[in-house]
Amino acid sequence: MVKFPTIYNVQLVALIATLGGMLFGFDISSMSAIVVTDQYLSYFNNPSGVIQGAIGSALAAGSVIGSAVAGPISDKIGRRDAIMFACIFWLVGTSVQVACKNYGELIAGRVLNGFTVGITSSQVPVYLAEIAKAEKRGSLVIIQQLAIEFGILIMYFIGYGCASIPGDASFRTAWGIQFIPCFFLIIGLPFLPRSPRWLAKVGRDKEAIETLAKIQANGNIDDPLVIAEWEEIMTVMRAELEAGKGWRKFFKNGMWRRTMAGMSVQAWQQLSGANVIVYYLTYVAQMAGLTGNVAMVTSGIQYAVFIIFTGIMWIFIDKTGRRTLLIYGALGMGFCHFVIGGVMGGHHIDVPEGVGGNANIVISVNTGAPANTVILFSYLLIVVYALTLAPVCWIYAAEVWSLGTRATGMSMAALSNWVFNFALGMFTPPAFVNITWKLFIIFGVLCVAASAWFWFFYPETCGKTLEEVEIMFSNDGPKPWKTKKGESRLIAEIEAIVAKKTHEEPEGFAPPQGSEKV
Q1: Dihedral over Cα of 41, 44, 45, 51: its sign
Q2: CA–CA gap between residue 381 and residue 505 (Å, rounded)
Q3: Distance, CA of 416 to chain centre
Q4: Which pLDDT tens digit goes with each residue over 292-348?
Q5: How far is the C-alpha of 153 from the C-alpha of 195, rounded, in Å?
Q6: Residue 444: which pLDDT band, with cuts at 50, 70 and 90?
Q7: I want to staple 347 with a disulfide (CB 3.0 to 4.6 A). Which of 290, 296, 366, 426 is the partner?
Q8: CA-CA distances (angstroms) from residue 282 to 31, 197, 208, 358, 482?
Q9: Distance (Å, rounded) from C-alpha 464 to C-alpha 475?
Q10: Beta strands of 289-331 (E only): which ranges?
Q11: How far apart are CA 488 and CA 481, in angstroms?
């Protein structure tokens, strides 16, 4: 068997692994720039309402299935190999899309692509969280969100460029380009290390310690950080073995709090309504009177804004509490929704035949200040989302689980995300037709509810080791609103190990007694 050299630089590992996020981004905007083109509307007979909702939400439908099976697959074959397995379905799904003859085949191809996204969106954050140092975990996991956003931006402007190609070759060319990031991901995965925590979980202790040392301490297994992390991993694993197997462990004792937090944070990310803007800003732009290339470029700029502000948060993510960003982010997004909905409600005219012939857009916002306000606050909503819920919801969901539940738990969290993504994908196009501006008022109310939920139920996880989070969600843990960032117990453990080493000469590090049986 060919043995590939292994990369242990965590930033480089993250760049390769998060190509899985780029697949997600590519598939999102593979429709955004195309759904308003004449070629698409003509070939698929101007799909609207439920049909367009089914096309748009097909990705989420497949992702629900992928998320449901991601945990067991990841626990069986490992985080890295689960991502490789998912790539197979991306290649098949993209082939079906490129060759589709009707919207039924298009939906089928998007479902297959969604299956891949369901696995990668849940297991890439798990993989990154398990190889990162506690104080760098947020900045590493946020690379996944940046990869998604770069994928969205790149694919949107590919679609925009392909719109100038006559006939169905326009969208087929755009969809065919989705092969490229998958190809590079397949090439890069064999060079990545396996998660040391997964290796420990399946009893490969020697390999786990060596991998942990190479990632954290340039291969020094006697490094205090390596020893401290290994001891925490083994302590938690022994406790989880006593908890037993099966689904009941997700709801026993304090685990139900973690299950609730991991799944609900992903649900709230969708219920915040940001994807209405991300997926359908082209519709909002046309409501505001922008047409043709102006509407397309205006919509595309939001994706660049998305990347810029998530990039800014990449610098500060581990310096700011997760709770703070979630609570104030939800309130800020709610304010934007209320402004957009209020302006649309007070300054529009009905266009029953559809603006520009698009049956999904049945109101037109008055030109001038009202239209400019709608566009401005749509951008502002994306800015707030990029700084807060977009990256933090994925980070928080990856942090709350224990070692024995992390892969399946994260797949449950992603499943929650995709169930709501699917529901909203089906709901939004008909809602644009039937309740128009009131859609934004609904999302504004949901954002306010989300901020209250975050305050009462989510303890702070920033700066904690994955094992310390165990205590945060236990029956004896502190009230969520009394928790603070940092204060990691791992630092004290490292200091204790260093102090011990100064009094005795180590003969070399070995796993704690009994670990070979774990």
Answers
A1: negative
A2: 58
A3: 12
A4: 777 778 777 888 888 899 888 877 877 788 999 999 999 999 999 999 999 999 999
A5: 30
A6: very high
A7: 366
A8: 11, 44, 48, 11, 43
A9: 18
A10: none
A11: 18
For the chain, the helix, strand and coil percentages under 3-state DSSP, each to the nearest 5: 75, 0, 25
288 contact partners, CB below 8 Å, separation of at least 6: 365, 371, 372, 374, 375
Model pTM?
A: 0.75
Residue the block writes with tokens 């191809």: 109
Instruction: Measure the CA–CA gap between 420 and 161, rounded to whole angstroms.
Output: 31
Q: What is the pLDDT of residues 468-499, one digit of tens each?
A: 787 788 777 788 888 887 655 555 566 666 66
What domains are there in the chain, each with its CATH number?
Answer: 10-195+247-469 (1.20.1250.20)
Token pair in block for residue 439 = 């859609």
Contacts of 483 (CB under 8 A, 6+ apart): 323, 459, 460, 472
CA distance 350 to 368: 17
- CA–CA distance, 109 with 179 (Å, rounded to integer): 13
* CA proximity to 462, closest of 484, 482, 477: 484
Structure tokens at 10: 């965590």
Instruction: Give the long-range contacts of residues 430-436, CB within 8 A, separation 24 or more.
Output: 430/49, 430/50, 430/53, 432/280, 432/283, 432/360, 432/361, 432/362, 433/48, 433/49, 433/359, 433/360, 433/362, 436/344, 436/348, 436/362, 436/363
Query: In terms of pLDDT, which residue wins out, 94 or 128?
Result: 94
